[in-house]
Amino acid sequence: MASKNTICLWFNGDAEDAARFYAQTFPDSQVGAIRRAPGDYPAGKEGDVITVEFTVYGIPCVGLNGGPEFRHSEAFSFQVETEDQAETDQLWDAIVGNGGQESQCGWCKDRWGVSWQISPRVLNEAMDHPDPAAAKRAFETMMTMRRIDVAAIEKALKG
């Protein structure tokens, strides 16, 4: 990896599966080097995949097959800004439909427990709207959603 700063995500033996899913699902994403353990270790055996380098939307990451001790949480998430409802739906359906789970306000988890915020551009712009009442209406509308509904956010902005 060319970057000195890389996000490391801990997995329980399935880092390669996750990296391949991300590479197939998100633009500007790919799987890089796959490194195997040169000897036995607490979470695996010699020859097991121990790390997988990958990028998600151009962000360098490494998946570490460290074992079951640590789980992903909402304290870390990838936030993806989408352009429209079609892109929002495509990414949401890919994550949730592949063993993932819906949450609130545009958040979901993939089947590995990594959290994602699928945030349409219109929602992000609504939070900065010059009319505080419009921003509040959009915010309150968003708070009732799981997957973000672009048309509903646009309607809330208009009042």
Distinctive features:
159 residues; alpha/beta; 2,3-Dihydroxybiphenyl 1,2-Dioxygenase, domain 1; four-stranded mixed β-sheet; elongated
Layout: helices, strands, pairs:
Blueprint (H helix, E strand, L loop, with lengths): L6 E5 L3 H11 L4 E7 L12 E8 L2 E7 L11 E6 L2 H12 L4 E2 L4 E3 L5 E6 H7 L4 H11 L7 H9 L1
Parallel strand pairs: 1-4, 5-8
Antiparallel strand pairs: 2-3, 3-4, 6-7, 7-8
What does this structure look like?
By secondary structure, this protein is of the alpha/beta class. It has two domains: 1-70, 2,3-Dihydroxybiphenyl 1,2-Dioxygenase, domain 1 (Roll); 72-159, Roll (2,3-Dihydroxybiphenyl 1,2-Dioxygenase, domain 1), CATH 3.10.180.10. 31% of the residues lie in helices and 28% in strands. The protein has five helices and eight strands. It has helices spanning 15-25, 85-96, 121-127, 132-142, 150-158, and strands spanning 7-11, 30-36, 49-56, 59-65, 77-82, 101-102, 107-109, 115-120. The strands form two sheets. A four-stranded mixed sheet has the order 1-4-3-2. The chain has a four-stranded mixed sheet with strand order 5-8-7-6. Helix 4 packs antiparallel against helix 5 (150-158). The N and C termini lie far apart (48 Å).
